[in-house]
């Protein structure tokens, strides 16, 4: 048990998703590791490699010294290049090698988390290039719970084995993705000052969020309804998470989205919906 109770929900969510991934990958035939996921350019093997790599870095293992091939089309900038190293270095690993390393990493990391003595606000290393070099421990654990749940869903969709859409990790993902809505609405989609946009999400995780844009064009988000919003979007939780994580474009799931109000603004929001790097 981690020392600070406020951190335990993130550890529990992370553990649940990691164990779910372990159950999904253990029986895989060799060819199933190569199934494409909705994560651009990544197979099931690549997604699992990504998780292993980040958790190993959090354990203090050195990053691999590895030169990437020049023809990886989805590597377009230094951030994606940074993330691809841990993936590409494992691209020729067999299924048993992948499963073994994942299980060993899970055991090591679980032990590390059980013995964690630092507090929520203590600064720790960040392992993703779009975050500052150090972040509060609470944020690090929250983002790891979020990341592994998102990738659990990537693996599930690739294998045709849905589940855990209402797990503890799903609720962490709800909060992380909701926090990115003001930027989507106010900055990317250019919602006008003094406007409000409502997101009504149904399905396994149900919630409503309203983004309010003030007179200076700054956006905030809360759970209160808005009377007469400028635009309203209704969609199911899985579609919302796929859009917000950049797994699918709005036109591919248009039949699962209902919009009201300013249709141009709603379209601009859906076009800019992804909040993950």
UniProtKB/TrEMBL annotation:
Gene3D superfamilies: dinb family like domain (1.20.120.450)
Recorded GO MF terms: isomerase activity
Keyword Mitochondrion on entry: no
Domain of life: Bacteria
Protein name, entry field: Maleylpyruvate isomerase family mycothiol-dependent enzyme
Cross-referenced Pfam families: MDMPI_C (PF07398), MDMPI_N (PF11716)
Organism of origin: Streptomyces iconiensis
UniProt entry keywords in alphabetical sequence: Isomerase
Annotated InterPro entries: DinB/YfiT-like (IPR034660), Maleyloyr_isom (IPR017517), MDMPI_C-term_domain (IPR010872), MDMPI_metal-binding (IPR024344)
Domain (Mycothiol-dependent maleylpyruvate isomerase metal-binding): residue spans on this chain: 15-156
Lineage of producing organism: Bacteria, Bacillati, Actinomycetota, Actinomycetes, Kitasatosporales
Residue span(s) of domain MDMPI C-terminal: 171-267
């Amino acid at each position: 048990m981690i020392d600070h109770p406020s951190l335990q929900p993130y550890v529990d969510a992370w553990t649940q998703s990691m164990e779910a991934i372990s159950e999904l990958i253990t029986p895989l035939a060799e060819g199933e590791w190569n199934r494409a996921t909705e994560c651009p350019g990544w197979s099931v093997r690549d997604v699992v490699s990504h998780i292993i790599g980040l958790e190993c870095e959090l354990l203090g293992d050195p990053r691999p010294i590895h030169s990437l091939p020049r023809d990886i089309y989805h590597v377009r900038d230094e951030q994606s290049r940074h993330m691809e190293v841990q993936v590409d270095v494992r691209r020729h690993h067999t299924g048993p090698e992948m499963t073994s390393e994942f299980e060993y990493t899970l055991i090591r990391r679980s032990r590390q988390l059980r013995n964690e003595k630092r507090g929520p606000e203590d600064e720790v290393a960040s392992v993703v290039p779009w975050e500052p070099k150090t972040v509060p421990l609470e944020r690090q654990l929250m983002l790891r719970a979020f990341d592994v749940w998102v990738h659990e869903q990537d693996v599930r969709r690739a294998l045709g084995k849905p589940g855990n859409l209402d797990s503890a990790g799903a609720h962490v993902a709800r909060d992380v993705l909701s926090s990115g809505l003001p930027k989507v609405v106010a900055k990317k989609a250019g919602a006008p000052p003094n406007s409000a946009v409502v997101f009504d999400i149904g399905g396994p995780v149900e919630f409503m969020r309203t983004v309010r844009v003030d007179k200076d064009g700054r956006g905030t988000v809360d759970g209160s309804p808005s009377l007469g919003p400028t635009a309203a979007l209704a969609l199911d939780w899985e579609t919302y998470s796929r859009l917000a994580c950049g797994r699918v474009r709005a036109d591919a799931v248009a039949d699962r989205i209902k919009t009201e109000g300013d249709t141009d603004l709603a379209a601009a929001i859906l076009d800019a919906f992804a909040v993950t790097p």
